[in-house]
Structures are given as C-alpha cells and as structure tokens.
Request: fold
Amino acid sequence: PTNPPTRPPTNPPTRPPTNPPTRPPTSQPVPWPTRPPTRLPTNPPTRPPTNPPTRPPTNSPTNAPTNAPTRPPTNPPTRPPTSAPTTSPPTQLPTSDTPSTAFMSGNQGISLIIPGGVNDDTVMFDVGAFTSQFRQSLLDYGVSWVIINLSNHKYGDTYLAPHPYLTFEHIGSTPKVIPSNIWKNDNDDVFGDDNMFIYLENYRDRDLFREFLDALDSMNVKVFAYMSAQGPAMLTSTETKAYDYNNIYPFVDSCSLCPVLTSQPYPFCGCAPSVHFWRRHVRNSYGGRDDEVIMKVAYAEIIVDEYAKRYKDKLAGFYFDQGDVADMVLIVECIRDHIPKAMISFGTENKSIRLHYPFDDFTFGTPVDSTIPSSDCSNYYPFITTTEVASQDGYFDTTLAHIHAPLNSEWDSGSIVWHPRQAHEWQSRMIAARGAWTWGVKRASIDGNMATLSYMDPEDVLFVQIVNEAMKKTPDYKYLCEESPTVSPTVSASQPVSLAVSDEDVLGADFGATIYMHGNMFDIEAMKDMLIHGLDVMASINTVFSIKVYTRTGTYKRHETNIFGWDLILDEVDIWSKGGNKATPLPDFSDPIEMLAGTTRAFYVTSSEPVLLCSMGMQEGEIATSNSNLRLYVGTLNLDEFGIYAKDYTWNGNIRFEATQEITLIPTVSLKPSIPPTTVPTISIQPSKKPSQLPTRSSRPTFNPTLPPTISSKPTVSGSSNPSISTHPSPIASVKPTISSHPSKKPSSTPSISSRPTAPTDPSSSPTRSSAPTTIAGNAEWMAGNHGISIRITGGTNYGTVLYDVDAFVLELEDKLLSYGVKWVIVTLSTSYYGDRYLGQHSFLTTNLPGSTPKEYDNGWDGSITDLSTLPDRDIFGEFVDRLDGINVKVIAYMAAQGPALLISGETKAYDYMDNSPYVDSFDRCPSLTGTPAPFGACAPSVHLWKAHVAERYFGSKSDATLRKAFAAIIVGEYAERYKQKLAGFFFDNGEVADIPAIYEVVQESIPHAAVTFNKGQRLPLTNNNAPYEDYTFGWPHFDFNAYPPPDCKNYPAITSVEDKAQRGYFESSDVPGQYSLGHLYMPLNDDWAKGSIVWQTDKAQEWMSRVLRARGAWTWAVKRATGSALSAIDFEDVQFLRRVYTNLNMPGPYTYNCQNNRFSFR
Reply:
C-alpha cells in the first residue's frame, strides 16, 4: 500500500529487542550457484522425485528444537541440475523417503520350493548344505534375495514352521525333528525300526523357515516368504487337494474322522479333516461364521499375523499367491503391525493388473500364460518394454517392476526352457531399467540319494552363473520378439519370432546336454593315424552365431587362459544352428589336422554367444566316449575367450576324421549329472590375454538421483514434460484490505448474548454471535459428532503445485470417502509448519516475494523457468474451496502463525535462503537488504522484504509484536476476505507467536461464522485453552511420535476427557466462564503427519473414534498424499484404512482399548 495505516499501533515498542536470537546457525551452508547451468545433462533422470527438498541444509544443529516438529522437505528442486548424473554407484542411498524395495531395484534373486509339513523333504533337509552351495555358487554372482515358500507352494494347508493352532490341530501340517534312524527312507517311512507307528506329538517342532532366515541373514541375503492366500480352507483348490484328503496322509486317519466331521455314515474317508477342523476353529473364533469373507479375515489374522509376529524384521517381505481370495487390505495391515517396512506382493489370475496392483510394493511377476514356456514372447517381453518406457527408475508409482521367471518347464521340476543369450538379454534390459528379476530354480533330483534333496539343481545353478557372468557385457538386443533370422544371416520381416523352447528343439536329449555356454576345451587321443577334417557342434536353439576353433598339440591343461601356442583354424565363421539334438556341421578345416597314433591334441571351440551345449557329471581327464580310433576326454567349460573357465564339463558334438581310408563320426555320449555335485565348479578368474571387442559395463547401473533424498542440498533432477493440469485463469488480485488489527481495549460492559451460555442442548441449532470475542461458542457446532480429514500441500510455485489436480482429489474423496460421512477437509493454506509460502495469490506476497504463491505453467512443470512475472497466478486453495463446496464438504484453512517473518524457525528455513529458490537471487539481493558487502548470499530476501514492508506500514517498527499484528492484518485478513462465506474456519499453528485476539478479530470481520482454533496450550487431556478465541480444541496428540505414537495410551486422556469432562462435547473455559470449545481430536494416521506408515489397528481406531463421536466430539484424521504421478490423490492404504474404520463408528461398550491392560498400551 502507498499510504500507511491511519493510526499507529497503540503500543509501539519503546526500544529494540534486547536479546539477539538464542542460537545462530552452527555454520554457514555451502553456497548455491547463482546462475543456472548452461545446459541440461545429456541423460536426465527419468523419474522426478515426489517430495525432494528445495533448499540445501545448513548443517543440522546439535540439538533439535524441542517445541517444533522437524520439517520434512516437501518441494521438488526448482532448478535444473548443474552437471550430468554420475555413472558410478552412489556411496550411500538416501536415509529416508527411500522405498523399502530400493535394494531390489537393479538386482536379482532366486526362489526355491520345499513342501511343507512332515515329509522326507522337511525331516531330511539340511539347511547347512543348501547354505554352503549357495555361498560357493551364487553369492558372488549378485544373488541378493531368496523367495522361500513358507506355505506349501500354491496350497496353503502345510507350512515350513510351527504355528500355535496348526501344529496341534492339523497333525503333520508343520515340520517335526525326527531322528534319521527313526525316519526311514523307504516306503515304510512312517514306521520306526520296531514297526511302531511314529506319533508326531512325541517329537519337537522344527522351524525350518527360521533356519533359512538365520543362515541367509548371515550372508546378508534377504528372505521373502511365499504364501498361498487360500490358506487351510483351500478356497481355490478345494479340500480334494488338501494334504490329508481321503486317507492319503499316514498321520491322519480320515476314515475315522470324516464321518464325525461331515455327518456321513461310517465308514467315510472322502474328506480332508484339516479343512473341517479349520472351519470349526474359524466358527468358534468369529461368532459362528465360516463364509468366504470370514475365511479371508481368519487367514490374515490367524495365519499371516502369527508368522509376521514370529519373524519380524528378519523377514524382508511376503509374496502371496492366490491374491484373488485374499483380504489384501487386512493382510497388509497384519504384516505391517509387526514388520512396518515389509515388502509385499500379491498374485492374481487377472494378469493385466500384475504390472501394478495398489497393494504391491513390487510386482508379482509370474508368467502371463503358464501353459507355455516362460521364455515365450507373450509372457515377459511386453512387461520388459513397458518397464523400460513407462516406469520411473523401475517404479510404477510406488511399485517396483519385478519379474519372477521359472527357469524350467515347471516351477520345481522339468528342464531349462531358456536360451542363455535370451535370458542374458532380457534380464539385462530389466535390470538396466532398474527393475528386479527372480529366477525360480528347482532342487536337485534325489535319484535314490536322500542327501541331494538339500541342494539346488546344479544345472540350474550353472545357468544362473553363466547368465550373471554375461551381465558384465552389453547384450546385442536380438530377442526383440518382432523378427526372426533366416538361414542366411539376414533378417526376414515376414516371420514373427517365437521364443518358446521345447525339449525336442533345444535340449538335445540324444546327447543329454542342457547346459549352454560360450565354449569348451577338450583333449582327443588318436588310437590310429588319422586326419581330423572338421567338427559338428550342438547348439541350444536355431539361431545365427559366430564360432571359432583353436587347436594345439598336447593337452589344453595349464593353457586355459593363455592364447600363446594355440592355432586359430576356424576364424569367426557365421553358422546357422540346427538347434537341440541336431548336429550342426562346421566348415572343414582348410588343412586337415594330422594325428599319429598315441598322440594327444587339444581343441577349443568358442562361440560369440553362450549357445554351445555341454554336459557335466564326470571329472576332468576322464574318458567321455571312445571307439577303436579315437578317445574324447572330459574338459572345461569356458565363459570368456581364454578367460574364466570351470572344470569337469564335456563338449557335445561330432568329430569328423579319416583313418585307414575311412571317415567315421564319433558322437559324444549323454552324461547325466552326478548328484549331489561333488564340488562346485572351480572358477579360475584370470585376465584375458585377448581384450574384448566391446567395452564391458556394469549390470547394476547407478540409481538415478531422483529418489527423493532428504539430506541432499543439490538434487539432480530435470523438469517434467507433463502438460499443465490447471484450467483456471488467474483471478483478479484482491483489493488491499483496510482492516484494523487491534482488538477492543475495553470489553463490552454488557456481555453479548450467547445462544449457548451453558453446554448446548440442541445440536441442530446454529447460534448467532456478536463480533465481540466473548461470543465465541457456537461456530463449531456443525463439527459436533462428526469427522473430517486433513491434507498437506506445499505452497508456492513448485512441482507439486504446478501439477496438482484438485479435481482428481475431489473426485477421489467423493467416490471413496464421502458416503462415510466426511464433513470437512483441513487444507494447508500456508506451507505446513512454515508460513512463508501459500496456496493462493496475495497482493503483496505474489508481487514482491517471487515463488511464494502458485503460478500456472502452460506446458507443465519446467524447473528452468526463473522469471515468474509473465506467468498467470493460480489459486489452488480457492479451487479446493469451490470444488469441495460443490459436494457439500467444508474447508478449514491451516495456517502457520509465524508467517513470512519465520518468527520461530528463523530465516535459514525460508524457501529462498542462500539462493535456494531459482526465482530469487540472494547473492544479488542480500548485500543491499542486510548492509553486508558483496558477495553475500546468506540471507532470505523474502524475510527482509516482508519486514521492510511491515516497517513501512507500521511507522518503522519491525518488532516481533508488530510482525505478529501484521501477519493478522495483512496475511490473514486478506485471505479471510478473499474466501469469505465459503471458508468454514481456520486452524492456526505456531500459536505461541500468534497475536490471537488480532487474528480472531480479522477473521470475524470477514467470516463471522468461522470456527477457529489455535495450537497453543495444554494438549492432554483436552481443555479450552484460548477462550474466548477458540471454537474447537486443536486436539494434537503427544508431540514425541517416536516414544508415543498416536495410538499410544499416552494419548488416551484425550478420549476420556471428551467423555467425562466435556458437556455434550464442549469444554467450558475456566478463565472465561460461559465460553465453550468443542472437543476435537486431530490425529495422524501414520507415524508422521504427512508421510510414513499407518500405526493404528483398525479396531482400536474404530473404538477410540467412536467414543469421541458418541460424546459429540469431533475427529480429524491427518492423511498422507500418494507419491509419484498420483501426487493429487490420497495414499491408497490410508483411504482403505479409513474405509474400514468408518464402517463401524457406533461401537457401544464395553471397550477393549481402555489402557487398563498393558498389552494394549500401543496398538
């Protein structure tokens, strides 16, 4: 304004403040560059952060403030990165706001299936043997997790661990420790040596799953529990598939039990006693109900909850099959009650939703069509390309893209169906896109040797080794599921490729080879004089590849990694493989190789791709096959050309030779692997003497620096290309208000008449009130017995405000929560705890403090724009008020009373401190604003400009008292006038620095009906703190969420105070009799106000909330927003939780969570 107020403050300060700030910053922050970079990085991050910080930290103080919450960063970076992203892995991942699945991103694991219950597998399984094989064979190849079935694969009736109900009621459904001399390994395996039946009750329980957890945890390998959600009820498979159906299980006599359980005439065996016992248990536990809905609930609360509680944080997460019959919401709640950071995934029959299910932390990732090989194009290729193109660093919103691929034709049996080159290429692409990959491997075949059941199949292990070793190299991208090679090396566009692999085409059954690699070294010995004319090779699939053949006199041994002495006799010949069990001839050697009887010659056949077949099972140097002319010896498998190799592998193919005028073909024999493997292949890692033609690259690319680090002062991020979502032109700026900020010095001699001198008796009445402060009671009556929610949105111009879609929020609220009676939404008009940025334009702030109020971008968010003067204003708060009014939901404005002066936080926390904002050049403004010689940027221009504006309006005064009055008159007054009748009330934070009478007066002048409260005074129990200026209690729980989370009994007095001390929900002021404040609780749903994880149990939330509403109090849930592209929505889990709570808000006593029993002290 050009003219100062008509009168000065009634009590101007007589002297400047005598005390400086109590604590200056501990050190100066690192300066932010004053100019944006000249160019963006060539490869900008693909995924913008959801809530990264907007300013660099100033070095955390040694002692955090005790009276103010820590401020989480809520705004994205406002300037482009100053340099290209690093190509090396980060030294440390962000410590907060990092997805729990971050360790999976760009990594891989395996899965293993072990039948549950009491059987050969669980009695004889040696976890130590498995661990030893894993440590030697897979740990160094980057396998980071193992999915192990806690329940019996797709059936949910037997388990790998004890359970308080199942173990005692479902005999044989959980493992037992039975000595091997009693547990016999023949057909009579349930009888002891004296032919006495084994009574399982006599043997102690075995927690086989915990043995896996402990063993893998010692290697820093995480474990996921596979569980079948159909549970003991067998909801999907029916009881005919149960482990004890029709007397098939030796420990359960179904013929005796079924007549009793089913009321069928004796004898009757055709039932599964375990299923009927389970249903009876559920009926006894859930009021006689055993319908499918209750069965789902019981599975979550009795089975899942018990195992989550048993293993807690040692368990990385859960992997649920049969998600179609799961109560996903309840399962997630049960798990996170015990394992807050558990990673969870659900599989369903609807394959289309496996890309992203709302409850998934990572996608289930099993094949789309299980009737065809998992390697077929239709199973994974569309998902891989979608992950590359549509995901953000491997994430679809908050769900990590993950593939779980069976390596064999069946999950736990069969033969390998993947071409190693295809596996390498597809896995490389998925991991390069920051997705995750899990190989389902089978266990070793027993073949009469029970000791082998503890091992993974050695061929599967080797395949995983080969693929992961190949990850060091860049794939050629030949398996694109679009074109197929012809006999010549050209590509035919008319033939679509099918990567389905069958036993007949690839596995080479005639030669017994299922292992593919780059090459083999082997020795041959001539029994007669002869000429070697050429070789035939066996390749795994019909394809074009390049091949070389080396030879040398004598043996290959001690020359595996040294090219010296080897002769290249076939140089990079491109051949078309016939595949599988068909020999593919190589061209004849240009000069036949002469061998004399009794001499030995070594050959090395190597391919450009890992497609050559070989066998394992014999020792290096043994004769693999022979005839009267020639002997072929067991040799090596070679992963690199004269590089890494492994012993004890036999080349598969034919040797074409001529002896005594006769040419003979010697095929190599089929060699079944020796089980168990006597040794893990010994890998020699020596440098290759011949450098690779292509540079290698890491299979684990660095995280793009777009995960929202909370401590980085310079996040690297590029602008989003999303179009602008706002359709609203800038409204005309409001006229500067001429409002007195001063309350009456002298109260009215005649008290104004309140419609409620005592506690209100008519809830339908809406009492009128005088503008005098003494008539505060009544404006919150519409809140009595009702409930609402709150949502936090960072103010100013930033990624969040440019892209925020108010319509999307309102539609979600209307669709998901409105029918449950939500009456109001508390929306942050100012930025959370800070009062320096706002969601609506302002006559002074918008013009003088760039970036402090929202702007519209025509083409979506572009962080490189620094001049906001040409952009139209956006009134996001006005949009909320208008849209919510359209569905009859009231809006309460949350404001931080410290205002632009940041009276509590200090200017170091301002949005534009030290050049943090791209819209404010602090190094240009600070010298003149502070009188400090240039260069100097350690100030917040917005704070100094605001104080200068206040001094201009208030006769030169910038005292704290004046700044408080200015906040009331200039900030609150203008916004109250702007929104007027459509605004239902205000919630003022920072009440300790608020001029409460002045704020109250300006609100009442514009909105006489506004319900107002201030966060100042006693929290617990509830009371009327600020009469006569308080319509409802601010209602916050104990401030220390770590020590006392919101559901803790520390906050229980808030409930009882509304019931016992309030009069029909109202608290009468002890200081101003006749003035009332409605009892209102403002509870975070999560472990923080606007982020984190849900900390409430459904029934406790229902009970406490019901008690408050029944006493005519009010309740507000603080919910968090969704992340990523869904930033305009409420977090899905929060919505689902509220829907469950709202279904039963009329709970009569007696009450369970009354904090009289210690076990209910929390949750």
